Every structure is written in C-alpha cells, then in structure tokens.
Amino acid sequence: MSFPVILPPAMLGMLGGGQLGRFFVIAAHEMGYRVTVLDPDKNSPAGKIADVHLCAAYDDSAALKVMAETCEAITTEFENVPASTLDTLAQSRIVRPSAHAVSIAQHRVLEKQFIRDAGIPVAPFVVVNVASDLPADGADIYPAILKVARFGYDGKGQARVANQSQALAAFETFKGEQCVLEKMLSLDYEVSIVLAREENGSVAVYPTAENSHLNGILDVSIVPARAPQSIQKQARELAIKIAEKLEYIGVMAVEFFVSEGQLLANEMAPRPHNSGHYTIDACVTNQFEQQLRALTGLPLGDARLHSQAVMVNILGDVWKFASNGSFSEPDWAKVFAHPELKLHLYGKHEPRPGRKMGHFTVIGAEQETVIVGAVKARAELGIG
C-alpha cells in the first residue's frame, strides 16, 4: 500500500514550543520544510525560530483553525497536549502520533494497564482513586512511590512512601488526584529505547541507552548501554511490541527498569526523548529528523550508531545566581576545550534550578574514553 508523501516546502505543525520542538524545527528547516509552532509561551525556544509562532493555548479554537488551514501535517513535542486538540486537527489534517496513543501515554493509569495487558512485565502497582484504595501497612507493595496519573514528569508529582500513613499524607498533598501506587524496586540500572515507526509498520530502532537520574531528572545517558546483549535485545523487542499494539506512527521512547536481572517497563513517551539526544551527534539519522520523516511519510532514516556516546543534561543549577536575581553564565570555555564534545543550548529565556537548559554529548571511538571525557566535562561545569 502506498501512502501520501509530504515534500518541502510544506508547512508542518508542532504542538509545543520546548527544546524538543526546537530540535524538530531545526531538522525541518535543514530539510526544506516550514514549521508553525503552537505554544502559549511568547519566549518558547521553538517558537523563537519557527516560521510562525501561534502564541495561544493548546485548545484555542482560532489557533487550531489556523493550523488546520495552513499545516499539511501536525505532530507534538510533549504528551500533555489535550487529546481533544489532536482529535480536532485530525478531522482535516494528518496528525501523528494519534490522539489515542497520546491519551494513553499521558495518563499513568491507562499507560500501566496498557503495558500490563500487552503482556509486558511491569512493577506491581495499585490504582488509587480514593484514600481507601491505599493498601494497609504490611502489604507487599511498600515501600512504594505514589505518582499522580496526569501531568507528572522529571520527578514532579511523585512521593516515596514507606507505609499507609505516608501514602495517605502524599495523596492528600496531591489533592485527591487519581494516582498510581507503584512498588519501589531494587534497581540494577535503567535503560531506554527510542524508536520510530512509520505508517506501513516499518520500524527503526536506536541502540539501547543506559540512563542515570539525579533528583528525578535524567542526568547521563551512555550509549550503547553497558548491559548484557540479552537485556538489550529484550528491551528492543518489548518497545517494538508496545509501538505495534498502539498502532503508533512517529518517534517514541520506552523506559525500562532492570531489577535483579529482570527487565520491567516503566513508562513510555509519545515523542522524541531526552535519552535520545545523543542521536543528534552519534547516529546517521537523529530522532528529530526521524520524527519528521514519520510525519511526512518519507522512508525512515538509518538509525545506526556511528560513534560511542555519553550525553549529559545541563540544568539551570549550574548558572550562578546573585541575591538581586541576576545570574551569570557557566564557564563555557571549559566545555569548548574538549574537541570531542558537542554542546547544545536550548535558548530558554532564563535559567532556573532543575530546568533543562541544554545538554552536551561526548563522542568517540572508544566507550571508556568518552565516559572519562564526559565525567571530566560534567565536573568542570559543576554538575551534581
């Protein structure tokens, strides 16, 4: 079966104006496309470089009308865009990924149930709608993590709880929002898979990334992961299975825990992913070009890794803040002194502690060499 292909200089739509949207705009411009970004922030990183920035809410009817009339295909950079917005746009335009896929990925309860029902191993969990759903002390699920079902990311909307009383207190803090209580596991390490799937079902899978987090936010990704080939193969197979069950079109990521040697799916993201940023410098086709290819019906690019890579997030914490609210830049000269290091800053309006401001990737022929280089550059910036 043949599918329509959208070629340059077509106008494409991006819902969301953060750094993921910015990288999409860059990839689109390099390939000759134009992009309209819808984002309510007048300083959004993607909006600043887009051909058109619609500075409006994601459910603004006038803005959606403009997108439907001017964009030939539309995608998203984050999962908290209302599914109804995607449904509205899909009535007249190609929208990838689908509202159905996004609605599952943006809701922890639906996500956990979907993954479990697909026959993929997950950590034990309990759906919490009301306080009485919280298990009593002595239940095997404790210690656990209570997570809000919606709008939680980078460690936000989560609380570690050792017993029912702590869980009740956390549930009250979350104002009775629907939650998932998930058993806290003893982790060996964490890995993720980023893949792209096109309309005809073809899949391009990137190498497995090994990830470490700091304060709930991704800190470092090492690629390829230093995990047994059996774990990497299983992660790849399970991620593909999830994409196929969702009938997914676009780029997605699946994060996994490895606990006592067992691989468990943690969560999925219906978009490019922080742990896939290494693809910009270390792969034949990066995840953002792949997103564009899947959106426009072009054949997927080669996902092959051509260099060993270590990606390090740069948060706003490394900026120096004065008591009057002013701030000074990190010493970028130290970063640029590493010839094997590639720096990417996101053009955000101002730094804040915990805010993702950029990342760097160290690439090279030998994994140990790039790890040592990344550790050194990370320390020079004062990260961690």
Textual characterization of the structure:
With 384 residues, this protein is α+β, with helices and mostly antiparallel strands. The chain folds into 3 domains: 11-95, 3-Layer(aba) Sandwich (Rossmann fold), CATH 3.40.50; 124-183, Dna Ligase, domain 1, CATH 3.30.1490; 189-381, ATP-grasp fold, B domain (D-amino Acid Aminotransferase, Chain A, domain 1), CATH 3.30.470.20. The chain is 30% helix and 28% strand. The chain contains 12 helices and 20 strands. The strands form 4 sheets. Strands 10, 11, 12, 13, 14, 15, 16, 19 and 20 form a 9-stranded antiparallel β-sheet that branches. The protein has a 5-stranded parallel β-sheet with strand order 3-2-1-4-5, with helices on both faces. It has a 4-stranded antiparallel β-sheet with strand order 6-9-7-8, with helices on both faces. The chain is globular, with a radius of gyration of 21 Å. The mean pLDDT is 95.
